[in-house]
Amino acid sequence: MTTTEQPVGVLLRQWRERRRLSQLDLASRTEVSARHVSFLETGRSRPTKAMLLRLSEQLEIPLRERNSLLLAGGFAPAYPQHTLHDVPMAAVSDAIGMILAAHSPYPAVVVDRHWNMVDGNDGVALFTVGCSAQLLEPPVNVLRLSLHPDGMASRITNLGQWRAHILDRLAHQIAASGDPELVALQRELSEYPGDDADRVHDTRSLVVPLKFEGDLSFFSTTTVFGTPLDVTLSELAIEAFYPADAATATAIRSLRNGQT
């Protein structure tokens, strides 16, 4: 993550280095000379708005940070940012509601770029039973809730494996974004107790499962919106959990029907 307090050339260089590209690599992708890229980074040349947008596209810079880059270059942001309650987001909000409802009784949550829960369906209650009230106060961070000793951790039977999966996923996200808030979250989660001896994945499983007390086992999928042009929309993801075996599917249906 970057701020507009830094020169636009410095920000460009930081993003290029984060993507592990040379100036020649970026120049080739953007169809300009390596010398021009060098001049932009050192401040000898001032980029146009169109050039900043071209470079941002090739560097796969998140929309929020593209706006910051434009501001640093002296231009207005190119991408709007709405809440789900704003009129332009009505269709998106309705679609999210339909996805969450259709996924019930299995848990599904909508999270932002920092893993704070934006919305969720009734199935989420399966995971939050017994969790500390403090952890359930908005904004609920789903990764903290998952690994905190007063959250779901005590009910996850493969905690070491699940903890390693979450920390690895977070590390990849940090490498791509450099977000300091995610760095702080990773540091916090790493300090929570967990059985690191259980980090090895079961080679018989196709995905890393979330194994819950009561012999429940889930796998998760992540859904994002294609070609978003709004900052908020680009940062939303739907995490949906599915039964990893027939016994779990039967147990969840029984719970829904009020059976024991």
From TrEMBL:
A Pfam match is MLTR_LBD
Q: Which InterPro entries match?
A: Cro/C1-type_HTH, Lambda_DNA-bd_dom_sf, MLTR_LBD
Which Gene Ontology terms cover its molecular function? DNA binding
CDD domains with a match to the protein in the record = HTH_XRE
* Stretches assigned to the HTH cro/C1-type domain: 12-66
- The protein's name is Helix-turn-helix transcriptional regulator
Organism expressing this protein natively: Antrihabitans stalactiti
